[in-house]
Amino acid sequence: MALTYAGCVGISRYAHPPSEKFAEIDTAATQQVIEIAPSGENIFKAVITGWSYEKKTWKRIFGPWPAVIGRNGLAPDGEEREGDGRTPSGTYRITRAFGTAKELNTGLDYRQTTGDDVWIDDSASTRYNEWAILPTDAASYERMKRDDGLYDLGAVIEYNTSPVVPGHGSAIFIHIWRDNGNAPTAGCVALDRIRLKRLLKWLRAERSPVIILHE
Q1: Distance (Å, rounded) from C-alpha 201 to C-alpha 5?
Q2: Residues 1-9: what's their mean pLDDT?
Q3: How confident is the model at residue 2 (pLDDT cuts 50, 70, 90)?
């Protein structure tokens, strides 16, 4: 399947202008935004657009690209719950990238995953919604190095990480999609590997990137 970076047929209405959510951003600190919006095709199909703040205006750098979100769509701000199959609405920091490779071309902090790396999704655990190393006494967790390759490349969406509220959702990432974008996630944002690699290369920690997820 050929990939086109300029945009996607039928979803160009999301390219310009940035949403009203951008008015809430402190541009003195944040100059990179990943914007996620529903595509209108079905509940889990979305589009992703990258914006850079340059010369006192927001400039579209890439997208809109096709993406997928949770199987039950977007949760209204503050209503995300563990296991509900929804992706949380809102604005969140992007500070950490991860993957199976020893090194990754990204401006974010990068961590190579191993078979002992897990993300705790047990709401009763004192380490709920944290990256941990096996062994753990948590009743449930998600492995960060998966056999299906979905986490070969990704970034952490800093949702419910500081402070952590038990039961309000965990392990929200940007990662590689399944079945060429024809399958939803459990609550994350996913896109194809090539574009995800380009996205992670573009992100720079010193520009304090955020992700905006909105209906």
Answers
A1: 15
A2: 36
A3: very low
